[in-house]
Design brief:
The complex is a heterotrimer of chains A (292), B (297) and C (227). The longest helix of chain B is centred in the first third of the chain and has 18 residues, at 2-19. Chain B has a 5-stranded mixed sheet. Chain B has a 5-stranded mixed sheet with strand order 9-8-10-7-11, sandwiched between helices. In chain B, strands 2-3 form a two-stranded antiparallel sheet. In chain B, helix 3 crosses helix 9 (254-269). Chain B has 10 helices and 12 strands. Chain B has helices spanning 2-19, 51-58, 85-96, 116-121, 136-141, 181-188, 199-207, 218-227, 254-269, 271-279, and strands at 61-65, 68-69, 73-74, 106-110, 127-133, 143-151, 153-158, 173-177, 192-196, 213-217, 232-235, 242-248. Chain B is 34% helix and 21% strand. Chain C has one domain (2-224): Orthogonal Bundle (MetI-like fold), CATH 1.10.3720. Chain C has helices at 2-5, 8-41, 45-59, 63-73, 95-122, 125-133, 138-153, 155-168, 180-190, 195-224, and strands at residues 86-88, 91-93. The chains are: A mainly alpha (292), B alpha/beta (297), C mainly alpha (227). Chains A and C meet through helix 1, helix 5, helix 8, helix 10 and helix 11 of A and helix 3, helix 4, helix 5, helix 6 and helix 7 of C.
Chain lengths: 292, 297, 227
């Protein structure tokens, strides 16, 4: 639904009213911005020498980008690669005609969607045997793989359901077998439809790597913590780290939007929420899944 | 890894681009630890087949430490090696095995409360010096020698506060680190412990007045009081006793006697006091008398 | 196992905080998210831009950073929740609780907004046109016709958002609230020999809560199903 349907093209009086609203909003926003800026300024947060110099020091920039951002990206993309594999296997298993495949797959998927990622990370960390050298790195990757994989399994199911029914029927009609229909007809089209959701899931994974600091994993948040403990500049560090996260995530969002336009159009996926599969087995009406 | 190199190259060129405008120079490069020389008397010093002999022979040791407690165990974003009192004591132990504490033979592993025991049990680290309080429950799983430091929990409040001790804060909120022993002691004293992720976060909460005070080891509090002179002060007597010890694996009980011997030697030759002086001294803590060691079982 | 079985009161109290955080932030995030959504589809360009910017920025920030903002940065310009001082039974709702509720609310409302927007998009065009035709204003069209249908269509994505929020309350552990994960870390610190059992107990606690919530959502979904 386009916005213009919700309200008329404004008449002269409405125009005036809208301008007043606009002005009030602008004043309020500027006031808020000033209030925040002034507060930080009074608290000495804009003191370059004490609080910000570290972010122009080459060694620390390198630490932020290489030990921080790069590790974070590695963990997130490692997790997404794993999650895609997990998602494809369990997504298809959930749609199996055999109950003895479908049920365990459903239970596993629902389990990993229901447990907080933080708990999964700690679990993974201990079961891995923390003896291995990069175990905390892998604990983050594995936990995010399981969680995002479970979400993607559900997304994949929705994606395949979104392929027009006639496609599968036509494939059976020309004599293809079940596996062929899935791998040659349904999957390629389903994957195309789920691409945008996949990229949004990357954003989720990227944000969740921040929890890795609790199992000693490297990454942006970890480096940020080291910096503010050393320079006592919690607020500036927070802004720098947040800016880095937001920039990468916005790039991913642009990519997702582009993929959506290029491959999917207006169609939306019907992804059931956790546990939805147990009771009804059906998703609800349209809408983006919970990429939280 | 090629990708990593490419990324590093991009990062460096980015730095070069921005750096030309204003190149900051934050942080200090000075290594503020004591230079501890490795001993060279290890031939036959340790009993054949003991863990110490193996470590000394291999020239390699893994040590668990903390990285977020300035003064005790801290590692900055650009540091190669941690620093602090725990680390200085660890260096004395390492040197006694005839391993150079500055060399690559020493692998410093970060530990947190969650992984100290599993690290020791699985042999990932040989020693843990990570402000590791000696408790009964921990001794069920690992060995703990020492203590090499006895501290007590105190209270840090705003300089203009009327609060004189933890007893004045019954029912009120006192900050400490989530999942630490200190927070349980606060509750036992009738105040309400609120947990954050690090002590410096608690300091911020005390400074902005959202909690009345914070409580943990006096040595840590003294550092923060010195850092914020005129704004914060340490009050009241210590209301708990924490014995900070060295963790080792239960499978290697011979480590205990050795650790105690090294500690005893460091107490008498002044190297323990020197370590204290350069790490915790600058924050205004008097160097105390060395503590009495627990006998090995 | 004794760590938990001998301390059921602590165990349940910690989940009590989790549930309290969740319930309050769920209600507030629904309200604020709806408001944001109205701004985003509304007629005033600057409000649309402000709401869109807000949603884009906050959605892409890790929750930990949003929490850190309200715990450490906002007190610098005088925004604290020190006025909050409510004690009910064993539960204390004070400054940290206020900061956590606000952080969770502001973060989650961006996702509520997105879920509702997708719901609005699923309302047939003719509905809004008809509402306009009978002379309803923008406010009237939204509250009387579009939103009631959009909300029904958004139940599944909204449920996902709120379930995720329930799990996200665990971040409050590092910001002064003794909720489930903070209690778990206290237990594992004091009873390090029973670590695995403690984990399992707390994971089960979360699973029960999530299943309860999704059961409720399913009931609602079936009752409200748009034909």
């Amino acid at each position: 639904m386009s916005n213009s349907v919700l309200f008329d093209a404004p008449g002269p009086r409405t125009m005036v009213r809208h301008r007043l609203y606009a002005l009030a909003t602008a004043v309020a926003l500027l006031g808020l911005a000033w209030y925040v800026f002034d507060g930080f300024n009074d608290a000495g947060q804009f003191d370059f020498e004490k609080k910000w110099e570290v972010f122009t020091t080459p060694d620390y920039i390198r630490a932020l980008l290489v030990d921080g951002l790069f590790k974070t990206l590695q963990m997130a993309f490692g997790a997404i690669l794993g999650a895609v594999a997990f998602g494809v296997v369990f997504g298809i298993a959930k749609m199996s005609d055999h109950w003895w495949i479908r049920w365990p797959a459903t239970v596993i998927v629902e389990f990993f969607r229901a447990v907080p990622v933080l708990l999964l990370m700690v679990f993974a960390w201990f079961t891995l045997g923390i003896k291995e050298d990069s175990s905390s790195f892998w604990a983050v990757v594995i936990a995010l793989t399981l969680y995002n994989g479970a979400v993607l399994a559900e997304v994949l199911r929705a994606g395949i359901n979104a392929v027009p029914k006639g496609q599968g029927e036509a494939a059976y009609a020309v004599g293809m077998r079940k596996t062929q229909v899935m791998s040659n007809i349904l999957l390629p089209q389903g994957v195309k439809i789920m691409l945008p959701s996949l990229v949004s899931q990357c954003i989720v994974a990227l944000k969740d790597t921040a929890l890795g600091t609790l199992v000693l994993a490297p990454g942006l948040t970890k480096v940020g913590t080291q910096i503010y403990l050393e320079f006592n500049n919690r607020v500036p560090t927070m802004f720098v780290v947040a800016t880095l996260y937001i920039s990468v995530n916005m790039l991913l969002m642009l990519l997702a939007n582009w993929l959506q336009k290029r491959y999917v159009g207006e169609k939306k996926l019907k992804v059931a929420h956790v546990g939805g599969g147990f009771a009804t087995g059906a998703g609800g009406a349209g809408g983006a899944g919970g990429n939280v | 890894m090629r990708l990593r190199k490419a990324f590093a190259a991009t990062a460096v060129s980015l730095i070069a681009a921005t750096g030309l405008v204003a190149c900051g120079d934050a942080g200090d490069d000075g290594d503020d630890g004591v230079k501890v020389e490795a001993k060279d008397d290890c031939d036959g010093k340790f009993e054949e087949g003991s863990r110490m002999a193996e470590l000394s022979e291999a020239g390699k040791i893994n040590v668990g430490h903390k990285d977020d407690q300035p003064g005790l165990g801290f590692e900055g974003a650009t540091d190669d090696r941690p620093s602090g009192f725990d680390i200085e004591v660890a260096k004395l132990l390492i040197a006694d095995l005839c391993i150079d504490p500055e060399s690559d033979g020493v692998n410093w592993e970060v530990t947190i409360s969650d992984n100290r025991e599993p690290f020791l049990e699985q042999g990932k680290v040989d020693l843990v010096l990570a402000s590791y309080s000696i408790t009964e429950d921990r001794r069920l799983k690992v060995g703990q020698a020492g203590p090499y430091l006895v501290t007590g929990q105190q209270l840090l409040v705003k300089a203009d506060s009327d609060v004189e001790s933890i007893d004045d804060l019954k029912g009120q909120e006192v900050c400490s680190v989530t999942g630490s022993t200190s927070i349980d002691r606060i509750d036992e004293k009738g105040a309400k412990g609120v947990g954050f992720d690090s002590y410096s976060e608690c300091v911020a909460k005390v400074l902005d007045g959202t909690v009345e005070g914070m409580s943990t080891d006096g040595t840590i509090l003294a550092g923060f009081a010195a850092e914020n002179e005129g704004q914060l002060k340490v009050v009241g007597d210590t209301f708990s006793e924490e014995n900070i010890g060295v963790g080792y694996s239960k499978a290697e009980p011979e480590m205990c006697e050795w650790i105690n011997d090294v500690l005893t030697a460091s107490f008498s030759d002044g190297s323990w006091a020197e370590a204290f002086d350069i790490t915790l001294g600058p924050s205004g803590v008097e160097t105390p008398e060395p503590p009495a060691l627990d006998p090995c079982a | 196992m004794e760590a938990v079985t001998e301390n059921w009161d602590l165990f349940f109290r910690s989940f009590g905080y989790t549930v309290a955080l969740f319930l309050i932030a769920a209600v507030l995030s629904m309200i604020f998210g709806t408001l944001l959504c109205a701004l985003r589809v509304g007629p005033v360009a600057i409000m649309r831009a402000a709401a869109t910017t807000y949603v884009t920025l906050v959605r892409n920030t890790p929750l930990v950073i949003v929490f850190a903002f309200f715990s450490f940065a906002s007190p610098m310009f005088g925004l604290t929740f020190g006025f909050l001082d409510v004690h009910i039974g064993q539960f204390d709702f004070t400054e940290a609780f206020g900061a956590a509720v606000v952080s969770l609310t502001l973060y989650t409302s961006t996702f509520v907004c997105e879920a509702l927007r997708s719901g609005i998009n699923s309302v047939p065009l003719g509905q809004a046109e008809a509402a306009r035709a009978v002379g309803l204003t923008f406010g009237g069209t939204m509250t009387q016709v579009v939103l009631p249908q959009a909300v029904r269509a958004s139940v599944p994505p909204l449920a996902s958002v709120q379930i995720a929020m329930l799990k996200n309350t665990s971040v409050a552990a590092a910001f002064g609230i003794l909720e489930a994960v903070a209690q778990m870390r206290r237990f594992t610190n004091n009873f390090s020999s029973q670590r695995t059992e403690i984990f399992v107990c707390f994971a089960l606690g979360y699973i029960v809560l999530v299943l309860l919530l999704s059961f409720a959502a399913n009931r609602l979904e079936r009752r409200w199903r748009v034909a």
